[in-house]
């Protein structure tokens, strides 16, 4: 009876409690409705509050709700009423959960009885079940747990629950699951629970432990089954067992025991999902997880993955979010990890299968998170939302943006996570505002005293936080589409127009505020707010210099103001939008039309164009400008003003500012420098308008340029200017010269034309040295190195020769570096005078000279520059007899090293040094310009150079370079003068209709003809150098010039005469070791390169022809000569017999060297041409043609045996013609009888010598051309037979 009375009293108390909770829920709904429809009133701190909270009555605002919306709202109200709010229930504290997680028995013993009561299921199981840990430590802890549980009465009921047969219980539960599955989920007959005589609560009260387990298990399985059948649609299950406040603890004990003993039947994730559908589900869930601490992450992950798409709008979403919040409050150390899990899982499901975790869950967890940080730090909410919107993951950005947009579509609710977030952000914003800020705008008389009396700036410790808040609101409004309320807009404007201290953070804050004003001009809606903004902008202009000096930063907001003003004047609104986005660090959509109000303010009230131009020139240049300095600098402003031609329009000189800025640069190179130089050059050459063609900027003077390179031209490569400045000035000069050529037509119409820089200036700039320095700084110079290479290849091709780059790799490689490491500071240093004296004593003191030269090889190219004058001026002394070859080779090596840093000066000095002796010719000092006009001056050197291979190598290198330089010079000269000539021709032809405009074509053809003549003359001179002189022919038996014969073998090689000796006592040299042979190889290499670069040169040279004795040399030594096969048919078609003879002789050597199908076809053509000429030539011409060409038939047959028949037929035909002519002449002695008599007298000689017929003709004294031709035919037959026998 006492038990029943107590039970009834508990039920009564529970009903009273439910009534109180229901009333509280209804009041909460009424407040939410009032806040939806009512206006907002600002409180004392500027925070909006519902009108019913301030004591005002909410106005009757009519709302038009559809039937679906009304049904949804009513359903939410019913769900809220049916929700048993877990307020009043005691949750597991973080202290208790941590104790359970770490099994800290000492901390568990310190818990109060109510806290300990929630953890009894797990503690009882630990005390009763056999542990896996058999250590003494756990045995002692277990005793403490038993002692702790001994005084708790509820332990007995839990022990009774653990005493049942769970195996049988699990079998019955599975049978009931099968039964429910067959019945379609309807609540019919139950295996676990028989017919209930009373309500579920009374049955639970009166039942034994086993029946209690069955009742709870049956109810839980029913909820889980319904959850699986609803396909994600949320419902709230009304369960008397889970809603009775009297038995909540006992039911929680049963749930914990069931899940622990039947984990396969009741997965904890499924149980957690089912508990969301019952009243006080979050409380049950926390108790369940607290008793199984290891399942915390698993449960949270399940709650996140099973979220709905629009979770924030539904009751299920709110309950899910509340459950996650309670779990993280119970275990705060994992709150950030769970939030990260929300961010990681949510967007993936959003873009994948459609289910998504609520973004509101992450926000709610952030709102609950309370870090141990000071008030000055950026709050976790600002950091979290900023990371979502400003991170690199576009899916996360879109996912959170949908949360913002969907949340704004609903009416404002105080329980909404979105509005809680907005309220918290607004509280943080108001907290950092200056206390004296208000919406009152002071008038002009108050402006001077506002800084001291009525105005207090933003506190220094709040500046970073304010900048973070500004960027966050920019992201919320620009990316997520947040529509600020009037209150938020007012407070944001107050923050943006605050005046921070002069610190780098303050400069950053002002820049962000200014860009936010440009990005969202709708924040300024009233005239008072517009006046406030104008005053703030005026303050920015006034304080810009102070901020830059006090903050110690190079990039201040003054440059940004100036840049925006220039963009507004030039109507470059897209550039302003790009500037705003780059400053804010986010890509937001800004309509150009929204900037019209700001444009009017800037162009009419603050910055006029003339003010902008005058102010820009006075701005100081950025000291040590480099890419490490971020932000907007004066260089950006000057660049835009140059683009808009504002300086020339208002006649403001900008040349000095640009030169000073170029001199104040360092690495890494700032990206705006090259565009600045390009637009500056354009402003020099292109007038601002056609009406005023003289409105251009002034170029940098030659004296200023010389000052930059003054240290380098001295020799040691040291200058007061940085290498960056020198490279930029070089880029300016080369770009300026190229632009002059490109704009020749437009410059011809100008009265005051810009002038090109003098050749003397260009000669004093060490271009190659600077390029070499830039090559080692490519990473720091950005695109400057490649731009310089492009300009060099166009204007100075002789500085970009392939062999130079290859030699540079050899000179700057590993081995030279290791050799230079041997050069220590203790090594003896040699001066230029010592080198000069050593040269003057040659060849007597060759060892001394060699010692100095070997030392110089250890120096770097830049350190070798001072010795260039002494090295080149004494080269002529090395041509004397007896100079060591090693000295010559070392000089050649040093010259090549110097060629990598100072090629143009070095070439001029070398050409002047190698001139013939003054005793023979009058010497002349040539300049760079002379050598570019006439490159053949290089070959007018001392003839001894032609037989000195090391110096000949230098000469050929210079010749190749000047030939390329001459082409570039003539092209530039043609462009400079072509338009002037056309203009003069047009004036002279006025009134002459129909006259063609031909001067341009004629000039181009003349230029090409001149270049071809230069190249062919150079080739002809070099080929002539290859011919042996009389002494060499006598010394080597006339075979010195035949490279082909020299490589045939010792059996066919004639005996070599004594070679030229050197100072080292060398004896007679063979053919391959002679100086002539080495010079021939060097010349052939150069000709090979020239023929590859321009095949027309090869064609022109061979149409001109050269001595037949050089054919074996050219064919064997020039690999690219095979291209002659392409034009030999054309050469055969020439009317001159000399050219036809040269073509056949050349072809004979090519067939031997290149036995190709193409050679065969050309050989057939040559034989056919010879047969045709036989029928048309006179006797005299026949003799002069066939005598040198018949021996070529031997080479044809040797290379192509199929030509035997054609050659034999041709020889027979030629013999018949000659024999008929011989027969018609009256002779005293028959030449044929004389021939037989000669053979009879000397039979052996006839069989041994294939050239016997020719010798016989001479010995017999026969002068008849036909007879000689007959003997030549016979000799040709014998040669063909002899070569065929040798081949077999």
UniProtKB/TrEMBL annotation:
**Pfam families noted in UniProt:** INTS2
Supply the alphabetized keyword list. Nucleus
Q: Where is the signal peptide?
A: none
BP-aspect Gene Ontology terms: snRNA 3'-end processing
Kindly give the InterPro entries that the UniProt entry links to this protein: Int2_metazoa (IPR026236), INTS2 (IPR029321)
Q: Does the keyword Ribonucleoprotein apply?
A: no
Sorted alphabetically, the Gene Ontology cellular component annotations on this record are: integrator complex
Q: Which domain of life is it from?
A: Eukaryota
Similarity-based family: Belongs to the Integrator subunit 2 family.
| Name of the featured protein | Integrator complex subunit 2
Instruction: State the organism of origin.
Output: Aldrovandia affinis
